[in-house]
Amino acid sequence: MEYFRKYTSALIFLLALACALSLPYLYESQTLWYKIGLDKTLLRLGQISGMIALVLLFSQIVLAVAGRFLEKSFGLKNIMAWHRANGLLILFFAVLHVLLILVPEGLENLPIGFKFWPEMVGALLFWIILAMVISSRYRQALHLDYRRWRAIHKPLGYLTPVIIVVHVLYVSDSFSHNVPKTILLLAFALLCLRVFWVKGTAFLQNRKDKSV
Amino acid sequence: MQIYKSLCVLFLSLLFFPFASTAANTWEVDTGHSNIYFSVDHIFSKVHGHFNDFTSEIVFDPADAGNSSFAFTITVDSIDTNISKRDKHLQSADFFDSGKYSTITFVSTAVTPGDDGLYNITGKLTIKGKSYDLVLPLVLAGMKDHPAAAGKEVAGFNGKIVLDRLAYGVGTGKFYEMGLVGKDVEVFVSLEVTRNK
Question: How close B99 gets to chain A, by Cα (Å)?
Answer without folding.
Answer: 5
